[in-house]
Queue: 2 jobs
Job 1
Amino acid sequence: MNKPGQGGGGAAATTAAAAAATIHRQRALLQRADADIANLIDNFAHMLKAARVNDPVRNAQENFQMDIHASRVVQAADSLLKLVSELKQNAVFSDFISLNECIAERAARFEEQNSDTERLLLSVGEELGASLVELETLYYKSLQRLSPAEHQAQE
Amino acid sequence: MAKVTLDSLPLKRVLALEESGIELYPPESSQDEKPLSLLQSLDFERPDEKEAKKSKSGKDGASQWPWQGLIEHFHQAREELMTLLDFIAHVESNEALTVTHMMKPKPLPNEAGADLALRTASKSRSYKEIASYLKRNAKSLERQVERESVFYGALMRLQRNWKIKRQRGVSAGPGGKAGFLMDLSFPLSVDPSLISSSRTAAWTLIKVNQDANGLLSVQIPAGKTITTLQVYLSRELEEYTSKQQLEQPPRRRDNRDPDEGTSSANHRLRNIQLSIFDELIFECLCRDVLQPSSATSLHEIGESSLDIGAGPSIASFFRLVEDDAANDAALKEVDVKRLPLAGSLRIYLQQGFYSMLLASIVQRSAPGPRAGTGKEEPANLLKNFSVLARHRSAGDKIVSLLDTLVLQVPQLWFRSHPTWRPFVSAWDVYFDIPEAIMNGGQMKHLEWNALVRETSATFQCTLVLRQEILSIEGLDGCMPLGASGQESTGMKSCVCSVSELPFFLLTQIAGKVIGWLEEEAVLLGPRVKRDFLSIVFNIQNNGLVSLVAAPSGYCINWWLRFYSFGSDDTAAASGASAPASERFLGPLPLETLRAVVMDLAINL
């Protein structure tokens, strides 16, 4: 008696867990995106702050700092691109809604092609039959006819 | 001799220890006293000078220049000063002392401007280097973005047609392995006995790679090639053979245009899938032929070739040929004789196999118990193919027979009656006598609303070949002479074998011609009788003359037989008694026959 309920409850729990995992993952991705963007902006701001001309020692120090900030900017951009790749991969493997729609659309299109092909085949068959009748009538009612052996010999 | 003295270590040594345990340290000297103490520890005199001094003090005599002492003092002061300077320089370089104040000269305005310009230039150079670094990285990132957009766009388009899996442990990246696989395996609902094959196991997962431009490329597994199934039928013809150009199977061109990544990958995957299907069909045929219930005989079986006997004088050849390999080598093995279209046979096999797959999917996915599964026979691809091969062979024989008949018999013609079913073929056979011959060579004017006289000389029937059984339909009562099977008049169809078909048709035609000739002769006189395939003319007191039709081979031969006076009319008419004389006329045209009958009717 309780098994269907338990089964239904189990399915509902699985769905809820999956939904929670999805939300958590979505948040993690958003956080990653925000962190990368903030990182990028901060390092760029630091680079601009070091634009002031000071004494040589400080200038050398700031040069090293600018190199590091620039590499961090590039690193943040690369991380963002990897995030984009990951999102695209998720879209390839997890976008079931659009996949199902696409499959349904293709199935409908193939059904239509199937019926069109059948109609085309029927029409081709009718034309073939009519042409065959004409050709055979002409051939067998003509006075001069070649036997298959004579035809082959001519070839 | 040099003397080395060592200063005491800069350690705080305990001077005394009181009874209460308190340690007494020496007083620390102040910062000003430290250098003084260090200076005081300096000994400016050299040891040799000290010895010379001592010796001089002993030699002090009366001879002494009055200014000698001053000069010596000056020398000593100079040496002390030099020592001090060296000491200061040494101490300063070791940073034992800090220079608290240095008097530097004031920089000039141009020097200050130059210094600022130098610093600005160095800052500007560092910024330019960073800008170039960022530009290089931006370009490489842009290229990466383009590559990935092309790749993922193509992958998403491919995903609409194919099943994509991710290869674990490999990440997608530019110019390297993409980490994606195309799964070409069949769904679980398909009967495993149909798709189990060692050949196709390597084709199940196909790697998808990304080249340097980001385009998709499908990689064929090592050691595998795309193959095509070729089917041939061979039949030994008794009368003639004709070599026909074998129809080449359509080659599956591999589109290598790099600009069409998705379409080329799609094309290649489709070729691989078709190759898989062909290999599965081949495996299915091999399994079927090895079953004991198979109605075919096995001649030869190999890894990619199968020769079987589908029926009497019918051999079937199946070959798995690589697409790029020359097909001529495979064709030379086959003794090419008159062959049906090889492409249609391959299509029939493919369609049969697809039907079996679909039926297994429907059967497995249908809920509830399956009705009648124990009674139905499993679909046998080879059996159906053998039936088709035998049907085709029989159809070819019938067409060749009819061709020959039509050549030999004027006014006989036939036309194919397409049924569009694989195991049913039909032909309509017609025989009619032209109006000109019927009217004795005179054209007759017909009113537009005049009915066309229906004569008994018109003959029409339909030959229907179902699998290997030939039936003749549409006859006005079968003429059972020489025909096998059901023999009853008034039936619209009867069964006939292919070898007996010419004789059967000629008999029917001869009967029609005899009937027409009788009608023509009766108009001129009542002394004409008809007996099955002969017309008997009663000669006044002289006997009987009969014109007899004798179908033989592919034509109707005519005989003129004379029965002498005294013979029993009945016996003569029935042909039971031997004719007094007979004359072989051979195959005569209809107008000649009519003329003969007219002459006989008029003169006799």
Job 2
Amino acid sequence: MLCYSNLFCVSNFTEEQARNRFQSELEFIQCLANPNYLNFLAQRGYLREKPFVNYLKYLLYWKEPEYAKFLKYPHCLHMLELLQYEHFRKELVNAQCAKFIDEQQLLHWQHYSRKRTRLQQALAEQQQQQQLPHGNATAK
Amino acid sequence: MAVRLSLASTWRAARPSKEMLPHTMTDPPPNRELIEMLALSRSQKLPQGGEDTQILELLVQRDREFQELMRVAQEQGKVHQEMQVLEKEVEKRDCDIQQLQKQLKEAEHILATAVYQAKEKLKSIDKARKGSISSEEIIKYAHRISASNAVCAPLNWVPGDPRRPYPTDLEMRSGMLGHMSNLPTNGVNGHLPGDALAAGRLPDVLTPQYPWQSSDVSVGMLPPHHGNDFGLEPPGHNKENEDDVEAMSTDSSSSSSDSD
């Protein structure tokens, strides 16, 4: 704790304020994983403002492992990377675009569980096949 | 008659030799005829003795010169031979040098490749060291994001299920940010109206503070130092981030070593 106070003695933030800032930035960056929220921001013109764009660039520090380990929704990092591009920010104004992103995100989200069920099925089939020769052997 | 004829011929021949005097001084060796003629004139003891002696002296001189030339020519021949031998030596040495040059170039090439590959290896070692994280931490994190279905859909998920890979409308509003600002409830903000109705069923893990806000875990964790003004172009702010992150990393690494 002492080192932190030394580190921030030059700034005008108190420790409390810095902690709050951390908390709010953590929440905000994870909200970026929500395409509907991104569409909301775009339609209200936030994504066109230069300070906001600078803020998005600043938020890239969450990619570092020391910070990333606090993210519960890692999709937000990918969204953050995409948000660095102006083209992406412009496209987000369309509700259709946000809907498309949402659909693809959900499909991707389900991809692993589908893959896992397929693997489990394949494993079950393999075990069944292995049991069959034994069954034949005992029958003989 | 024959003698008179021969006399006449020698006298006539001697005449041209007189004329040839200046020529013999400069010309190449005197011809056989002149010598024969002189021999004849000598044997016949003609009154032109004085001129004969002159010619003879010239001949002798010429002979001496020729002897000298021959000697010089011989010496030059020897020198030329030596030169040839030396040239061969020089050629041989040149070949040797070229051979050595080729070998040196090859060796340099091999060494340069080796050094380059070693440098690349060192770079990758450095990179790996920088990005090294304890496997326990990775497993913990993987468990965290998987168990909460943040990256992998629950196996019993069907369309209509309110769970999502991102914080939903409800979660966003119940967080610190949601409480800070009074956001009007809006169908656009967050789920579509249909899902919002379905979200009337609260998820099982509903707590006043969602795990994605993780304030308890992040005790002592602070964001990088940055001014409040994002309106300006931040020229050196990346550096600031790096400094702070470094400070954080030393601290976090020490804490991870404690946990190990």
